[in-house]
Amino acid sequence: MSAIWWVLAALILFLIEMITPGLFFFACMAAGALLAGLATWLGVGPGWAWVIFFGSSATLVLVVAPLARRWMKHMPSSPVGLDALAGQRARVIEALDPETGKGQVRLENGALWRAMAEDHIPADTWVQILEVQGTRLRVTIPSELVSPKEPSHA
User: Fold this and answer.
1) pLDDT in tens, 105-120
2) How would residue 129 be classed by pLDDT, with cut points 50, 70 and 90?
3) Last residue within a domain, chosen from 74, 95, 123
4) Would you state the pLDDT for residue 84?
5) Cα dist. 27→61, 82, 124, 128, 141 in Å?
6) Domain that residue 11 falls in
């Protein structure tokens, strides 16, 4: 197998790794293929290239993959896309009416969204986004803006 074939095999293995993220198995094999390609380019025979491929791939799988998995577990997950809207603030532009389902909010970045809430919320009120439901934001008045009720004297 020539050095070009080893490099091609490495590219294919890296592509497989991108399709199956989190395993790191194919990335280790791709690195082994690159090492075998380098060895072949330097003049090593095909038998030794296979030994280099299997040896380096196995070593990398046994050493690098567990370290990479441990590192990935410690990385905090962060919401992406529409899920990232949850927790953000928005200002009510058109009063939110739970009976009619009408209402609009403007996000801090300027985006305008249709919104819904369990309670009537007047215009020009700051709200917190709970989640995205279809094409609408479900919002609520943040707890720090809601005044506590007076205790009743019975």
Assistant:
1) 999 889 999 999 998 9
2) very high
3) 74
4) 79
5) 9, 31, 53, 42, 48
6) 3-74
